[in-house]
Amino acid sequence: MPAFMDCVVQVFLVLSCATCYTSENSLCLRVDAELSVLVTAWKGDKSISEKNVDTMKFHSGSCEASHAILILNCTLGQDTMFRYSFEREGDAVMLLYSFSFFPTDVFHGLPDMKDYMYYGFASPERKVGTVESSYKCDRKQTIQLVKNYQPNETANYNFSVQLNIKKIHAQAFNMKNSTFSPAVYCPAEASNPSPSIAVVVIVIVLVVLLASATAAVVVVLHRNRANKPACETSCRIA
Description:
Layout: E1 4-12, E2 15-22, E3 27-43, E4 46-53, E5 56-63, E6 67-74, E7 81-89, E8 92-101, H1 103-106, E9 119-122, E10 126-130, E11 134-137, E12 141-149, E13 158-171, E14 183-185, H2 187-191, H3 195-210, H4 212-227, H5 232-235
Parallel strand pairs: 11-14
Antiparallel strand pairs: 1-2, 2-3, 3-4, 3-13, 5-6, 6-7, 7-8, 8-9, 8-10, 9-12, 11-13, 12-13
Helix pairs in contact: 3-4
């Protein structure tokens, strides 16, 4: 895949829509997500302060044959970063979330805070589909990020980071016609469909009892709605 050339992102509070293009102006990465990051400062086992990070803007991104990355800069400070990292392992696609920050950018007024301490947290890497699919989850996910980088100096505070994802639709490889491929759903979504989907299924069953031809039309319309990418207009910026 050609190297990354240009990324465009729009952010509306916790909703971020990002598209990345190759030098041939081919869409290579797209993420539509609604999320926030909760950072907690601890002293011993006591919670001292919490900060909810829910406003982010585009920082950088890249698309290559085996991996793609999108980095958002949080408005708390220029070094406060949230990352989507996609890795290709054979035909499987792995996704990792990470968040890094200077505590002084996130927490103002805490005593004995040192500017040069930089922390990094990441989620476990997980399979989210194949190179021919997109990944989608419309159910809330709460992911505790694990510390993967911390200063060598003795810290006066400890920190925890929780990622809250309300919904996400993403694809990093083999995008065709600038739209999402058929989705692989998150486990919660696949095992427990949303009420709207359940209602559609019930309606389809009732229609089948009345007329199989009518049922076929309903199924086609439902599938077309499901495949239409969210946030299409706001993401398609030249």
